[in-house]
Structure formats: C-alpha cells, structure tokens
Amino acid sequence: MIEVRNLTVERGGKPILSGYEFSLEAGGILAVLGANGVGKTTLINTLIGVLKPRQGTVQVKGKVGFVPQLFEVPFAYSCLDIALMGRARHLGLFGSPGKKDFEIVRHYFRMLGIESLETHAFNALSGGQRQLVMIAQALVSECELLVLDEPCAALDYKNQDKVLKLLHQLQTEHGLTIIFSTHMPQHAVEIATDVLLMTSGTHFMRGKTVDVLTSENLSTLYDLPIARANFDGLPKHTFAPVFRQQEVRNDGRSD
Ligand SMILES: Nc1ncnc2c1ncn2[C@@H]1O[C@H](COP(=O)(O)OP(=O)(O)OP(=O)(O)O)[C@@H](O)[C@H]1O
C-alpha cells in the first residue's frame, strides 16, 4: 500500500530525515513514534505529498485522507461544512455538494456519534470534538489510506478510547490502511500491526509491533527507562516510563 525508499527530507535547508525506509501492506495500521522534534510531522507531510523529498521515493497505492494535528478555520464554518470539504475531490472544480454528498457526511457523523454537532460552529468545539469532525472529513473523501498526525493528542481517556476503537473498526470492518503518529506507546500496543520508531533523523526501527515495540527499544527511543507494565487480571500490557529513576533511593522513597 505504501513503500518509502531512501527518503531524505529537508526543512529550511536543513536535513530532517535521511535514509528512511519502510513499507506498510494494505489493511495494516502503522504507528509512528519518536521524541518531540524528531520529524514525525515532517514524515507525515511527506507521505501525503505536502512536502517533497530531497531524495528517495514515496509510493502510495490508493486515495489518501489526512487528519492534521491541530486545525482552526478562519471563518465560522459549521461542522457539516467542514466535513463536506472532504467531498471536494468528488465534486469537480465548480461543483457543489448534492444529496448523496450530504448522505455520506451524515453516515459518518452517525458512525462517529457526532450527529448533534452538525450545525455547530467548528471553531467553537473542544479539541476532541474537532478531531472527530476532521476524521469525518477524511472519511467522507472515501480514502483507502488514512493518515493522522497525533489523532489523540488533545483527547481525554474516554475520547482516546473512542478514536482507537474507531481506527480499529475502520481497519477490520472497512479494510482501511492507517498511519498515525503518537506519543503514547499504548496506542500502538492496542491497534497497530506495525511500528516505526524514529530514534533520530537518520536512525529508525521498523517492523511488526510484537517484534519492535519492546521496553528496550522504547528506552532507546526516549532515552529514558521504559518498563513493560501488565494489568492485573487482564491479558493486556502497556509501557510505562520510569520517571526520576536516579532520584529514587534504595529504600524506595524518592527525594
Ligand atoms: N517550516 C519549518 N522550517 C524549518 N524547520 C522546520 C519547519 N517545521 C519543522 N521544522 C523543524 O523540523 C524538525 C522536525 O519537526 P517536526 O514537526 O516534524 O517534529 P515532530 O516529531 O512532529 O515533533 P512533535 O512531536 O513536537 O510534534 C524540528 O527540528 C523542527 O524545528
């Protein structure tokens, strides 16, 4: 579905990524993790064609939908207007949305549980509500590859769960291929088939989540001890940072 080869990307004349290579099969979910400023947004913008590589290639099969990290609009658009913008590629240059376009938007609003927001002003919504409207905008474009830049960054636990369930459902029931960036390894544990760990602009680890998402690799990625944590009574695990480790004394008390 997507194949990236020997990718080098510059911003402001400086190399940000160099020699990046990975691929994702159709129907997979790739989670992209890395420290602040390592280049996740740069990579994502290159995958969707907004940034041009200095060197290397990005090959994508199928239509791409994109959900940006933070989104504000300059006018008082309603949520319905915002989502309808996702139909643009189906309308032609001077086309206006018809009955079918409204039906498609309403279908996805119902699926996301945001039908009550239809007439609300987009800019007056909370970050989480906006995120769901932007996901609707991407889905109404009837994309095959959905790319999301930190889709859960502004969301509380309940809404994180909602978005993760939705992404999983889009993969399993609708066959979408998904790429998302995140600062939460648990989100990759929950839904990603594949991970890309961006250690630096030139170093990265990629592969199946079960093989690559380990406490050792995450400790390297974040330059901080990361422990695997199991949940009592649940066949689940996550990863937890060991903050302030050097300040914890042998008696277990911290300074
Ligand atoms: N428009 C720009 N011009 C020049 N340099 C830029 C520009 N945008 C980003 N950069 C630089 O590119 C590098 C990567 O930024 P990017 O936003 O891709 O990182 P990120 O991993 O997404 O960070 P975060 O986790 O904080 O969102 C940073 O050093 C940043 O300063």
Automatic annotation (TrEMBL):
<dbReference type="GO" id="GO:0005524">
    <property type="term" value="F:ATP binding"/>
</dbReference>
<keyword id="KW-0067">ATP-binding</keyword>
<dbReference type="InterPro" id="IPR017871">
    <property type="entry name" value="ABC_transporter-like_CS"/>
</dbReference>
<dbReference type="GO" id="GO:0016887">
    <property type="term" value="F:ATP hydrolysis activity"/>
</dbReference>
<feature type="domain" description="ABC transporter">
    <location>
        <begin position="2"/>
        <end position="225"/>
    </location>
</feature>
<keyword id="KW-0864">Zinc transport</keyword>
<dbReference type="GO" id="GO:0006829">
    <property type="term" value="P:zinc ion transport"/>
</dbReference>
<comment type="similarity">
    <text>Belongs to the ABC transporter superfamily.</text>
</comment>
<dbReference type="Pfam" id="PF00005">
    <property type="entry name" value="ABC_tran"/>
</dbReference>
<dbReference type="InterPro" id="IPR027417">
    <property type="entry name" value="P-loop_NTPase"/>
</dbReference>
<dbReference type="InterPro" id="IPR003439">
    <property type="entry name" value="ABC_transporter-like_ATP-bd"/>
</dbReference>
<keyword id="KW-0862">Zinc</keyword>
<keyword id="KW-0813">Transport</keyword>
<keyword id="KW-0406">Ion transport</keyword>
<protein>
    <submittedName>
        <fullName>ABC transporter ATP-binding protein</fullName>
    </submittedName>
</protein>
<keyword id="KW-0547">Nucleotide-binding</keyword>
<dbReference type="InterPro" id="IPR003593">
    <property type="entry name" value="AAA+_ATPase"/>
</dbReference>
<dbReference type="InterPro" id="IPR050153">
    <property type="entry name" value="Metal_Ion_Import_ABC"/>
</dbReference>
